[in-house]
Specification:
- The protein is α/β, with parallel strands linked by helices.
- The chain is built from 17 helices and 16 strands.
- Helix 1 links the parallel strand 1 and strand 2.
- It has two domains: about 140 residues, Toll/interleukin-1 receptor homology (TIR) domain (Rossmann fold, 3-Layer(aba) Sandwich); about 290 residues, pyruvate-formate lyase- activating enzyme, CATH 3.80.30.20.
- The strands form four sheets. It has a seven-stranded mixed β-sheet with strand order 13-12-11-10-7-6-16. The protein has a five-stranded parallel β-sheet with strand order 2-1-3-4-5, sandwiched between helices.
- The structure holds iron/sulfur cluster.
């Protein structure tokens, strides 16, 4: 197992970032003498040779898209190397453990799983030694489970974090760039915390982390930033689920970043509630190089926000927008416009809100098409408000089906999804796409079409990353 490539860590999709979810376990494994190989199938072809050499193939599935790709990768890996042990780890592995273990996985590890992955490698090594050095028989791992329980609970223990190991990963050039005033520059990504202390009902994090989050020591975060800046990054995304879960830590990290690398800009994600609670610190974040802040606004309907237990209202969002702008940075809201409780009027109201608050250029059009995802384990499954709309679990697609009570919203969701996919392909101007979506929504409501909005083609847009997907 300690030979080069005896373990293969596979990333499938990490929002267009160079995958931290394999770079970190790689560092944990290297610290114990393993020499894992890495593969990121979002930017590299499937590598049969690497798979053939591996005795343990660990697939990282931090999000839904990654899981869908990861299952296909694991099936290919099993075909190429029938005796390897296949493990899944990451948020969506835990949520779908039962299905994965019954189909394609020998092990599933969840939560703070990096050290558990090292332990798994050790267990496999020991089992092989006990068997007198003979290779594993096909299916042996699955039947024996290597002493692991079939669907382990997420691990919520504080880890001793090493600096992520990125040397084997593809160049940052292959990943999302930051767009600053129309200039594309290399971007890196780090995490200063993992997990989240909140319990929003639609989010996949609470079922795994149960309201807990873990702080990564400042020197580790700084070292990870440094190695990506040395590789060419001029901008860093803090990929924490919510950077302001630990506001003192966040500020200390941002101060240290700016003190050492003053030209490097950054962005982070924070909930509306945090932006308001820490509004007094927003100016300093901007002065330290914060180019923009992403916030999961989700809706401008207070009814929908209450069903999601988001902890903010429409009025709060307006206030947060004002505070972020006053501090001299940009806010990029993300939305979940299609939920069972959002009416067609709500949808049109959302578009009006975006226009009225001059947010058209701050929102990636895909955001107007996002439909509520209810994965296994979701807190929404316990919500009485969700029950009337809930259908069966679509096991191999990893979500519960739900139907909107208004068929016009079902049709609109499909039409908007097709429109934004085609617009992204054609690299259409955001205002043109916005106008087309508004026409669709007005037509669905039987309203008279409105005149198109215009924005100057050469205008300066708020900074953004070139990868708009987020789940
Ligand atoms: S939506 Fe954001 S704030 Fe809410 S639980 Fe998820 S990560 Fe935390």
């Amino acid at each position: 197992m300690k030979e080069p490539g005896g373990i293969l860590l596979v990333a499938c999709y990490e929002l267009g970032h160079q995958p931290l979810a394999v770079a970190w376990p790689a560092a944990f494994l290297e610290r114990r003498g393993y020499r894992p190989a890495l593969l990121d199938v979002s930017v590299e072809p499937f590598d049969s040779e690497k798979v053939r050499r591996a005795r343990l193939v660990a697939v990282s599935v931090p999000m839904h898209t990654a899981l869908r790709l990861g299952v296909a990768v694991a099936e290919r890996a099993r075909a190429v190397n029938p005796t390897c042990h296949i493990a899944f780890y990451g948020l969506y592995a835990t949520l779908n453990a039962e299905y994965l273990l019954s189909r394609v996985a020998d092990s599933v590890l969840g939560g703070e799983a990096d050290e558990a992955l090292v332990e798994l490698a050790r267990n496999l090594e020991r089992a092989r030694d006990d068997a007198g050095g003979r290779g594993q028989a096909p299916g042996e791992c699955r039947s024996e489970q290597r002493g692991l329980p079939p669907a382990p609970r997420p691990i919520l223990a504080k880890l001793d974090f090493p600096v992520p190991s990125r040397t084997q990963l593809p160049s940052l050039k292959k990943y999302a760039h930051v767009d600053k005033d129309g200039r594309l520059e290399l971007a890196g990504s780090v995490e200063a915390t993992r997990g989240c202390k909140h319990l929003c009902r639609h989010c996949p994090i609470p079922p795994v982390y149960g309201g807990r989050f873990f702080v990564v020591p400042r020197h580790v975060v700084l070292a990870d930033i440094r190695q990506q800046v040395e590789a060419g990054a001029s901008h860093i995304t803090f990929g924490d689920p919510d950077f302001l879960n630990g506001p003192g830590h966040a500020l200390a990290v941002a101060r240290a970043l700016h003190a050492e690398l003053p030209s490097v800009t950054f962005d982070f994600t924070a909930k509306v509630e945090h932006l308001l609670r820490h509004r007094g610190r927003l100016r300093e974040f901007a002065d330290l190089g914060c180019a923009f802040i992403v916030t999961a606004a989700e809706s401008v309907s207070d009814t929908v926000l209450a069903h999601l237990a988001k902890g903010h209202t429409r009025a709060d969002l307006i206030e947060a927008l004002r505070a972020v702008r006053a501090a001299g940075t940009a806010l990029r809201p993300t939305w979940v416009p299609f939920t069972p409780w959002a009416t067609l009027d709500d949808y049109r109201e959302l578009l009006d809100f975006v226009e009225a608050h001059e947010l058209i250029d701050a929102i990636d059009p895909v955001q107007y098409s996002i439909r509520l995802l209810v994965p296994p384990g979701s807190l929404l499954l316990e919500s009485g408000a969700m029950r009337p709309f809930l259908g069966p679990l679509v096991q191999d697609a990893f979500y519960y089906r739900w139907i909107h009570p208004d068929p016009r919203m079902e049709r609109l969701a499909g039409d908007v999804a097709a429109l934004v996919a085609q617009a992204a392909e054609a690299r259409e101007d955001t205002v043109t796409t916005f106008n087309r979506i508004r026409h669709l929504a007005d037509a669905a409501a039987g309203a008279r079409p409105r005149a198109d909005l215009t924005l100057p083609p050469g205008r300066t847009r708020p900074p953004r990353l070139t990868e708009p997907w987020f789940c």
